[in-house]
Every structure is written in C-alpha cells, then in structure tokens.
Write the structure tokens for this entry.
Amino acid sequence: MIAKKMVKKFLQIKTLPHIAFQLTQMISEDNSTMQEFESVIKLDPTLVLKTLKLVNSPYYALRKKVTSISEAVVYIGMENLRNIIVVSAIKDIYSKECKSDSFSRAKLWLHCAAVGLCNQMVSERIMGEKGEDPFLCGILHDIGMIIEDQVVPDDFLEICDEFKKSKTLITDIEKEHLGSNHCEIGSILAEHWKLSEDIQNGIKNHHEIENTLAPNNITSITQIGEYLVSRMGYSSLNGMKGTLPAPLSEHMKQYIGEYKMIAMDLPDELNKAKEIYKINI
C-alpha cells in the first residue's frame, strides 16, 4: 500500500519519542493508573522539568508551587500532557522553510495550530465536551502533507503547483500523482502512534462531504475548524478553503453568534499557545 510505505519511510526520518508513544498508548487503552503514568514520565528528566515549568507558569497562576509530577498532571490533565509532547515532537519538522511559491511549511504549521485551537474551542464552548482530542486531530489533520513533503518532495511541490494553477481538489491531485492523499497518509501515521480511532477518522475524512455525521463528531469539528480558520486567512495552501456538508452549514448558522466569538478569540488563543505548546507563530 502506497500510503503505508510513505509513512514507514517518514518514520525512519522522524519518530515519536518513546515516552510520548508509551503515553499515547496508555491513554488509548484507558486502564492505567496515575502511578503508572508518573513512572513513565519520570523516565524522561527533560519532560519532568518541562511539565513542572509549565504548571508553575503564569498561565495556570497557581497559588502554591507544584513540585511533583502526579500533582502537575492533576492540573494539566494527561491528555493535555500528551498533546504537549506530540506537538513538541513534530513542530521542528515545520521549522526549515522550503523554497517554493506554492507551499510554505510555516504557513501549514500556522494553519494546523489554528485548526487545533479552533477545534478545541468549538468542542468545549459549543459542543460542551472535552477539547483535547479535537485539538490533537486539528494539529495533525494535515500531517500527511508534511510526510509527502519529506518523503517525495519533488512530487509534492508538483502537486502544490498544480493545485495553485487548477484549483482542482488537492486530494484528487495527490491521488493522481501518488496513488494516495494526505488524509489517508496522516491517518495511518495516527494509527501507528496509537491515537484514538476518532482522531484517525478525523484526519482521514476531513475533506469528505458526509451528511450523516453529528456536529460533535471529531471529523465534523475538524471540518468546521478548517472552514473557519481558512476564511480568517490561516489557510494551508493559497486558495485552499474548507468545504462544509449542508448539515454543518446549518449548524453554524444556528450558532453563528458563538462562532463569531470563537473567530474573535482565536488570535489570542494562538498567542497563548506559544506558552503552552511552544508553538512558534
């Protein structure tokens, strides 16, 4: 399978740190104790320092200094800690800019960060549900593009050039050139990293027009996030705009006031992300 071969080659270049891999697996299995989490985290002294520094930062504004990992995880949350580790592991891939008028790694990173934060706000403010998994799905929804950029750079730039000229669906152009697309490739990476099936499906289907999914489904939230941030100027490629199924369009109209507030707050949330996730934007 072409997508699996590309992911395998990418993993030879960039692997998820062992500690992060263990934590994501433990979270997905959902049967580990706090003591087991703490014992894994303590295997990485750098992660211990980073976690304690974060929980004692002005962002959390705690009255008492936190000195233990178990106490820190209570404040941060295990899913948030997983997200911090995963974001830290992948962000450097985006840092080295490529020379192309059609594609910018920095622009893609800003887009993914914006979608992740927008997903989290939509999930928490509008759906009334936890936002950690939607955040991670948003951060990773276009990771397949980075895999293409790393593994088949010449083909990928041709795809971007063709998209810029033709405005054909990016997934169709990828399929024609590579026999796969960034959605499928990204979902396979998420499966390898032991992320939840909801996150895998959100990555795989974020360009699919599906009229039967509920608005609170991670796939739906990611489509809403991409649609909203692209119209705010945080697109991944020039001319790239998210497309919504009719039920999601109706849902956004129903909650238009709340979505306008999310759009207003997104720039501030991106600035906060610099402190929490060390996202360079």
Residues 2-276 form a domain with the Hypothetical protein af1432 fold (CATH 1.10.3210.10). Residues 117 and 135 are 6 Å apart (CA to CA).
